[in-house]
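A student in our group prepared the protein record below, which I am reviewing. What it holds is a sequence and that sequence's fold in token form. My question to you is simply how this chain folds and whether the tokens agree. Do not assume that whoever made the record got everything right. I have pasted the whole thing underneath without changing anything:
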Amino acid sequence: MAFGHRERPAPAGVLTAAETAETAAAIGRVQRTDGGIPWFRGHHLDPWDHVEAAMALDAAGEHDRAEAAYDWLARHQNDDGSWYAAYADDGPATPADRAAETNFCAYPAVGVYHHWLATGDEAFRRRMTPVVTAAVEFVLRFQRPGGELGWRRDPDGTAAPGALLTGSASAHHALRCALALAELAGTPQPDWELAAGRLGHAVRAHPERFLDKSRYSMDWYYPVLAGTVRGAAAHARLAARWDDFVVPGLGVRCVHPNPWVTGGESAELALALWAAGLPRRATEILRCLARLRTDDGMYWTGYVYADDAIWPEERTTWTAGAVLLAAAALTGDHATRTVFSGATLPTGLPPDCC
């Protein structure tokens, strides 16, 4: 699979306007009255996937619902700037869910900046900037000397060992969005700029600093999706394991070599391909997900093609959200393109050493 050139724009018709509205309405039906967006009715909410779904609502024009989701985050932020790993209706889903994952806590910065780009709502930006600031300060307590982020604080307050490449790439994206918000607020954050430079360098140049999760497709494409790897390096990264993870006509494996393609990973790869200047390939991947679309506009999580079986039998808001965001980028949504192209996001300062 050649990746040596930028492609012409993607063909139209990724999702129709009616299909987009139907999917957004389906996410809205799962959203609770307090603004929280769980995976599906009766299941837990986690902060990262909650933000993914909120961004999808904004991309579909459901700005009031998206704002309610961000207000939920503001109300549930812990005093130290963190959020718990998972929530039931009235608090952490289990005692173990009192852990805090660094990429979960960083990601609201991406959503808040996306919502401001989508709406221009200055009151919202002013209200949410302190929330983002507290979250970033929490996350950066876990940055290691090599630039990578420790992935989790356990419920007893100790830092879990190890760093995750996908999580660090996601947090690098979030840190750049947080810097953009700081610029809008007129509050320079030089420490964040240094942290962003070190974190991006670790993701690009030091895979040995991360736990080996190379079986998972997210570790393959996420540095491109997050904007940490761009240009020829992005094309080379995507080409290197394309045949391991992409199943022609079906989508993207979640885990290699399992015969299981998943909607979330497929849509995220499509978004990464668009960001890398490969919209036709992105469109081809996104169109594979038609088999996972349900009558109400939601998407099944995955398909085991060896058994011709939908599995698991769940329809998650974050899968639907990823599809809407990929479609929004392909069809020209300004906020989504700005956030995921990364072209105008602050880059941080390069580290003094490697």
The chain has a mean pLDDT of 95. Strands lie at 87-88, 91-92, 100-101, 152-153, 246-247, 251-252, 260-262, 302-304, 309-310. The longest strand covers residues 260-262. The domain at 17-341 is CATH 1.50.10.10 (Glycosyltransferase).
